Protein: MFS transporter
Organism: Streptomyces cellulosae
Amino acid sequence: MSSPPSVSHARPRPRHPLVPVVAIALGSFAVVVSEFVPVGALPQISDGLGITEGTAGLLVTLPALSGAVAAPAATVLMRRLDRRLAIIGLTALIAVSCILSAATTGFAMMLVSRLILGISIGGVWATSVSAAARLVPARIVHTASSVVFGAIAVGSVVSVPSSSLIATHTSWRATFVAAAAVAVIAALVQALAIPKIPAADRVTMAHFRPLLRSVPANIVLAVVFLVVFAQFSAYTFVVPYLHDVTGLGAGLASGLLLGYGALTIVGNFGGGALLGRSIRGTVIATLVFGAGGLLALSAGGTVTASVCVGLALWGLAWGNAPVALQHWLYTDGQDRFSTEAVNATFTAVVQVAVASGSLLSGVAVNAVGVRSSAALGTVASAIACVLALGFMALSARRATAQEAVVAVSHEEVRAAALD
């Protein structure tokens, strides 16, 4: 994922700056793996706990809700805390949550463990990118951010298919044990590799006001919400969708999801390179690919070829979506917004969208069947395209009008000087 504009405050400078960046990225990887473990093991979890698959979708909804609250709260509450300690503590909390999930004796305890995970999700997303950016020279800030968000893309590659396979051949509890082990390893590496990273912005709630009062920023955030809502409406139930609608076995479904995940990595790094040429062009391409992929998946759900094409387009789009949308938001903000406030707000919107998409999709799945999940995602993705294209067209028209006014003013000044 591309980074925000370089931060002006002093940076800690380790001798090999990308080493601690990789350690931070491991925490992001652990977050994604832990968050999406239930997606791959959803059928087994629902059977094991005696609940419907739609209800099991709450295991994605609840951590997203607590993450939405935790992102701005953690940013403010940890404003004086060394970011090294914050990142290590949040990563360790992932392991605690996963161990509780593996040992759960009922659905209520499982929900509590997932709420705990949400605290880590919000905190890690809100602090990791800015912390990684401060560890490297300004010229490779984009590289540092791409490493962190590349880890998120890799996490999405391995989490769902691997948890599906583990749950199929062992038990769904083993998937949470594996996720806990990943988090423990990440925390140990972070303790060894990350130097002290003093808090920078000292964010308070006042830092959020300029962002929340900006109409263009709120439109971009609305597009972010719709894109993420679409993603998790469909993705939360993608395993039962491939089984029940497309009629694929566990092995073939896992293989397709692995391919989907691999394409998210391509989208992440390829989209990051394209952003240097055109932010708006990259955003448009991302939104169109995402909507097209979900349309192919939902309209041709019973046709394996259509599903393969849909997953390919969807994977490429989702891999680049966080990159493009966050960069679009930063570009709009320029130097008017606090970097950490933007990170926290973006994270909160993303997590609310994850919760909303998985929750409403779960309601639809319980009411009318699993096919509704992809249909709901397609509609939300199409609305995001229309909103973004309309906003860009209006912005371009206003920019052209302002340039014309400036040009006329210059001509008038020149004419007056000649007189």
